[in-house]
Amino acid sequence: MHATLPLIQHYGFPALRRARLETLQVNLGYRCNQSCLHCHVNAGPQRSEMMGRETLSDVLAFLEVSGVRRLDLTGGAPELNPHFRDLVLHARELGVHVIDRCNLTVLEEPGQEGLADFLAAQKVELIASLPCYLEDNVDRQRGKGVFERSLRALRRLNALGYGAPGSDLELNLVYNPQGPALPPAQAGLEADYKRILAEGHGVVFNRLYTLANMPIQRFGSTLISKGRFNEYMALLHGAHREENLEAVMCRTLISVDWRGYVYDCDFNQMLGLPLGGRAQTHLSELIGRELAGSPIAVRDHCYGCTAGQGSSCGGALDA
User: Fold this and answer.
1) Helix (H, G, I), strand (E, B) or coil at 171
2) Domains and CATH numbers, the chain
3) CA–CA distances in Å: residue 148 to residues 126, 133, 154
4) How many Cα atoms within 13 Å fall on the side-chain side of residue 287?
5) CA nearest 63: which of 27, 31, 21?
6) What pTM value is reported for the model?
7) Phi, psi (5° rounding) for residue 237?
8) What are the pLDDT digits (tens) for 144-172?
9) Helix (H) or strand (E) holding 262
């Protein structure tokens, strides 16, 4: 694996400061039932890092005291954490809206037979990875058979009411480019996804989020191996739009790793850049502290969020 942090110091990304905290994004562990080329977490079946019960208690304590009412759960596959359902239940009891970043195929993993029904009963918002509406493209990026397994999961979720008109069960899909290119316009691609998935596969969903691939971890290492890292960085820098700085996710979100340490976003988490670029901070140290106005640690990978239409955990910034 090639290190990318030493290579992203060239252009000088603009300084940023925090606004009011709205979202607590928690990485429950790097274990995943898939190993995707674009994965900036470098997740996979062999990863053993997993958030424990004590740290999960810190997450709930922070939610209770801070008043933050959006919990964004990610991984790896967050559902593979043995405490996932307990965390969701307790967060919902606090009145917190829970988001699960789901790879869809985890619904068919052994031991997860009741997962879809649980998510629906708790009204968990799903943000599900489906990097294309074509089988060959998905299987090339995520593994043979993933497309068909993903469709089975989507149909199962639809049967529970996810993505249906008038339903309060929200199902959003995520698109990633196949290589070192910016995503196409989100609105047009969403229309294509909805038409093709509905007509060809009987699947419905709410929104499509287009996310740029970050030049870090597995994807960044692949770019280096192919001699295209500098080319991609130049593309991101050249497409930077100053107006996107107001809407980047790190201004209203903090990212927590499986040990409980805090970062300005999950990309910084993967690069080991602590919150604000200062000393490593544990979530338990932030309980009762005000973060608005504090500096955000930035490097040139941040151009991946401001290039073109922008990219965030909620898709394009100008959508």
Assistant:
1) strand
2) 5-306 (3.20.20)
3) 19, 11, 10
4) 14
5) 21
6) 0.93
7) -65, -40
8) 788 999 999 999 999 999 999 999 999 99
9) strand 262-263
